[in-house]
Amino acid sequence: MPGSVGQVTTRRVVLFTGDDPLLLDSGAALAPVEVAYETYGSLDETASNAVFVCHALTGDAHAAGHHGNPARAGWWDNLIGPGKPLDTDRFHVVCANLLGGCQGTTGPSTINPADGRPYGLRFPHFTVADLVKVHRALLARLGIRRLAAAIGGSLGGMQVLQWALDHPDDLDAAILVCASARLSAQNIAFSAVARASIVRDEHFQNGDYYDTGRRPDVGLSVARMLGHLTYVSHTSLEQKFGRRRSNGNGGPGHGFDADYDVEHYLHHQASSFLERFDANSYLYLSRVMDHYDPFADLAAAQQRLRGCDTRFLVVSFDSDWRFSTADALEITDTLETAGVAVEQREIASPHGHDSFLLPLPAYHATIGAFLTAA
Amino acid sequence: MPGSVGQVTTRRVVLFTGDDPLLLDSGAALAPVEVAYETYGSLDETASNAVFVCHALTGDAHAAGHHGNPARAGWWDNLIGPGKPLDTDRFHVVCANLLGGCQGTTGPSTINPADGRPYGLRFPHFTVADLVKVHRALLARLGIRRLAAAIGGSLGGMQVLQWALDHPDDLDAAILVCASARLSAQNIAFSAVARASIVRDEHFQNGDYYDTGRRPDVGLSVARMLGHLTYVSHTSLEQKFGRRRSNGNGGPGHGFDADYDVEHYLHHQASSFLERFDANSYLYLSRVMDHYDPFADLAAAQQRLRGCDTRFLVVSFDSDWRFSTADALEITDTLETAGVAVEQREIASPHGHDSFLLPLPAYHATIGAFLTAA
Predict the structure, then answer these.
(1) Would B346 be classed as within a structural domain?
(2) Given B92, B135, B167, B353, the catalytic residue
């Protein structure tokens, strides 16, 4: 029976200092950079059994186990643990909050020691490659030079792909779940609406809201409702909510706040998001996704991949309309053309983009089998 | 060669007064009700050649011709005019701004004579059937008892369907374009996000923003950007914008406002919308769509349609993911089961829901042929 990794703690480590700053793709240097991370399972003697989990836009380092309340497990707890696809009896799993995030790793809400104020929009811009640089610095600190696998969904998958491009010798295996190598105009547009709702919120104050007692909560709520809505499918919303009104008197409500159950659900998503996420991090990390385009120079990308001995698994879900199977196939084709070993799977699921977080048997079996074959 | 109806003017008429108020489905009485409307082409001697155009959520009475500048034509000018599918050499076309609208017809922004203040959220709630009541009152005033056709897209199609249900003897022909008889959970959810952005805007002031110098422009902008984004398709955005950045320096922009062309486009959509639309009207009319569910009691609906001699045409577009062919087929099936004559057409178009506004040859040919067959 698959089990739980049990109680875990988030650790923090300073990886870059003034003497040894993080050199970003933009040319800027950033220090200090502290990173929040968790690990599950034991590192073996040769440090060869590590798996790095890259999280998505609004994720964090707490991927598995719990922080005291077993009922509140990490965001990928169904995948990570003893006997689970990311089997902690076999693997040493590492997950870290992203650079620019807001849950323990240095980001826009961090105090800039240079002036004693939160960075806000003075935080430097960064790229997916910069996210990978920080992950690698963490692994170096942990004494890990090569990974048994890197795995990630959505923005997490972008990090895995970039990792293979920048350091083709780092990874035995790479698992990209509902990832895209190039956001579409529609993808960018959805993020643009979310960002507009944040930056136009009067309480945004050009990003310097931290110590004012006013935050762009309305903007961030709308961003979350919209984002979440695009991470699920027409079918899953229809099955889960349809036109039900559980809280009403049976007839149509006459207000403009929540009436239908699906509205209550979205409002709840928004309010719980406000408790854990920072608007500036949302802006930075969503923009990182927009800008990601590693195959813009396709020949150069394939040249970098040639000779890469990483085994790839590229997974998509048939109802995911934000990051579709077409996006997955573009990655697959590019890898194959470069002579890289790649398996591609489209999993049937009604749950849209959020499928990557769910314990779907075919999905978990695919990941488990891929890792077992190593 | 198809021509233009030329210069037209919007007229206004008071249709309901204190002595003869509009009796709404809710039981409320509303007076006065003034309606803005336009007509194109001549009414024949027997008043038998009238076609009523029902507009969508953000439309208005100005469907064809121009108000002085021929370059700025009405929203359905490509469909209405001499030699066009709604041929004004043959038909007398009438279009009126909806009850609850903001472009000449009584709505939330109208001064309530009872207290001298704009109604705001004190405007009574109304239904699609109430919209039809106002249309019929206008036609009665114009001396028209039966229509050669009623036509509408989206919310306009809902009005046409309700018209046939409530007054099956009124219409020779009914044309429903990208309409639905029941919004899905996803549809409601998109409108819920748009409404949340309006009602949570600090300047909304519970709807009483008219005389304060502050309006919920941010909320209405976000609502429009989101709405518009769902009215076009992944493919059309990709073809039109892709990942282009025309206004930048070639590299990624580092702000969080518009960078990609698709963002500039959405921002432009929002700012032009603010000039012509009222946030309260958006709330009321979007809620009217949510609540519409004429087939909730299917047997009763079919009973009402039995014996209806109206010829129906139900049109959908293959890339319309807000109001899909599945929605059209549900209407078609219900009509057919009731023994009503109905033709159904899915038109190929990459332009999503907004296809109904475009001069697509197959679409216009279908409407023209259906009206010619009368």
Answers:
(1) yes
(2) B353
